[in-house]
Amino acid sequence: MQDRLFQPPLRTKGRYILDSIDTRIKFCSVNWYGGSDELFIPSGLDIRHRNAIAHQIRSMGFNTVRLPYSDELVLSNPLVPATLLSANKDLEGSRALDIFEACVVALTDAGLGVIINNHITQAGWCDGKNLCDAGWSNSHLGPICRVRQTEQQWISHWTTLMARPGIKDNPLVVGCDLRNEPRGLWGTTSWGAWQRAAQKCGNELLKQNKDWLIIVEGIGSANDCSGARKEPVQLIEPHRLVYSVHVFSWSGWGSMDPYSRRPYPAFVLAMQKKWGYLLTEDIAPVWVAEIGNTNGPTKGDLHYWNNLMRYLEHVDADWGYWALNPRKPKDNVVETWGLINDDWKTVVEDYRMESLRKLMPHMNNNKTEI
User: Record's PANTHER family (predicted)?
Assistant: First the structure.
């Protein structure tokens, strides 16, 4: 087991996340996806052992990993074909939940923190188009959804997954990211509805383990936490709430002026209104859990990226890159946003890793006492 990068449990103080010795911990995360997709497991287990992938992530400078799952994974928990585990033969004959748990343990054994994310209801790629996956519950839509769930079933899936011993009793499992990009039809989900559901789910999880950080994404595909000013999420345990947003080049529901085209002052105004105020007014931490860009960027892609890097450095926000993976599970298509090559070992050393390393204070042992 490798030395931990921080000392759990974690808690919040104003806009910061602190560890047990009151050192500020800045989440510098990467997303390792696959558990929410059609194959039901984190990708790459046919190429490299999970322990080696975990050490690879740490060697790249990340200190935390966002690990997504689908509700369908919990519901069906299928037996995983051995062909998907050819580099992890000790997991052959295992079901999806066992493999997900084993990947969590591999990451934490490497000293990394893990944030588990309920990403989608029906296993598959989250493209923002499927109404059945646009929120935490979809039972009101009736038979149009292949996988249906009520709000209570969504919470039950959370508590089932988090009860597994390699997760519940693991001090480096530090957070629960309650739902990916709640949006509803064309971004119609209200903050109030989501705030109430997030409180209910977060409080149930805190009854399981009072030390978990409860992470609540913004509405409108995780763009907007402005509603938290008047309707903050209230948890039964103090100092456990973290808000989260996603910022991509096209972000902003209903916007004819995407971030790929906005000048920096306009970009800053949007960030400040939607979530930056939580930091500048010392209200709560914000984890920008999904940022990303392609390995072959256009002029607009680079404009967005440079503005975002400038802003994240200015406000010193926690962040997470989407994604580690070199390929998508469906049809094994190339993931142009990935940070490693098909061998799950060779880092794509381009402008993205160069920028991200500049946002990693722990790479230079630059820790802050709060």
Answer: CELLULASE FAMILY PROTEIN (AFU_ORTHOLOGUE AFUA_5G14560) (PTHR31263:SF0)
What are the C-alpha distances in Å from 204 to residues 152, 155, 176?
Answer: 11, 8, 11
CATH number of the domain enclosing 134: 3.20.20.80
Q: Is residue 304 part of a domain?
A: no
Residues 6 or more apart whose CB falls under 8 angstroms from that of 282 comprise 14, 15
Report if pTM > 0.90: yes
Residue with tokens 């989608």: 120
In a domain, 262, yes or no: no
Count how many domains the chain has: 1
Provide the mean pLDDT of the chain. 95
Position with higher pLDDT, 257 vs 15:
15
Separation in Å, CA 355 to CA 112, 113, 296, 308: 21, 22, 15, 10
Task: Output the CA–CA distances (angstroms, integers) from residue 148 to 44, 116, 286, in the order listed.
Answer: 29, 21, 31
pLDDT of residue 188: 86
